[in-house]
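Quick one: Cytochrome b5 heme-binding domain-containing protein from Bugula neritina, structure tokens please.
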Amino acid sequence: MSSNGVSSLPAYSWEEIAEHKEKSSRWLVIDDYVYDVTSWSKKHPGGSILLGHFAGQDATEAFAAFHRNSIDYVRKFLKPLRIGRLEKGQSLPHTDVKEDFEKLRQTAEKMGLFNSSYVFFALVLLQIFALEVGSYLVLSYYGVNWLTWIVSVFLAATAQTQLGWHQHDAGHLSVFRNNKLNRIYHIFLICFLKGTSGHWWNHMHYQHHSKPNVIGKDPDVRMDKLFLVGNVMPVEKAKEESKPSMPYQKQHNYFFLIGPPLLFPVYFQFMTFRHAYTRRLYLEGFLMILYYARVFVLLYPLLGSVGAVLVYYEVMRVIESHWFTWVTQSNHIPMTIEKDEPTGRAWLLAQLKATCNIEKSFFNDWFTGHLNFQVEHHLFPQMPRHNYYKVAPLVSSLCTKHGVEYKVKPLLTAFKDIVRSLEHSGQLWLHTYEEFHSS
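--- reply ---
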């Protein structure tokens, strides 16, 4: 028996491990060790649902991706949960891809690509403050008229959009080298400066990263009440509904009316406050209220009425919502959306199937908050965004080696593909519905 008692641990096959994927019993595998995370999942900072997505599966690569800054610290919590080891000869597919990707990750570490530039992020924050202050100064200095109102609201929307990209940096723990500082900074950015729940954002966004474009696991494709995406969702919806709930064949048209215009001003507003209330996140709720109080105190003397303040605020959110939606969905909706995951799929293959890039340029980098490098962001979620372009050639070479498509599009083509993919999915729904219910 070895000194650490490893050889005395019981060995489990993948068939046995896969049986423990329900809420009452959750096992997962990290580095060939089996862990029972049933009780721990309730304490998991990323949420119990996130662990549930990997129950009965190998979580090694996801564990490395999400815990890069604190991997040794987190292993201390894992040790008491270890219940066994993987049986010998129980290897999963794509071992060569996983090994090469791990080498790439180590290369990125040696190149210092996970080290953030405080100067870069300071300039990002300075830009946000400058835009925010400018939106008020335009109205206070030049007075309120149509021209100043339009300029002001666009400055405010730009500030909030850029703030959205920056809170995304902090939420992924990529601004500071200390995770605690990142979390505090994230709360400051998203709650106090943006009026949104940081806990809600983490709850939703980390699920998206763990299982991108997987129906039932990625909340970003949980939209079948209004929109159908991919090739699987339209077929299933058409077969299960005897009477259509939406004219999905026209979704590429009504997307412009109820998609981006309502996402931030309605859905996000409701969900973020609901989340803070139901989870009893009193500090977040207080900071969110302070944000709205600040907006009202600053705008009311300039605009003169509560109604005028509300109109200004809603228009600003509609602009931001359009900006956010077109950028984020251009990388995902046109890609593969699936229901069943292949067993043991490599992290590289999972992320490349669900993501694509937009061409690099100074404008594209700024406009998208560097999410034009969506592939690199998904592969290395804790890498500071100013280093994506440095690791991109290495990722592209690795994809070429293993025959994986590394897709890069012009910005406008990526936007058009959103509409094209919605039209395709809508037509697929219509054809399936007519065929299935014709009798």
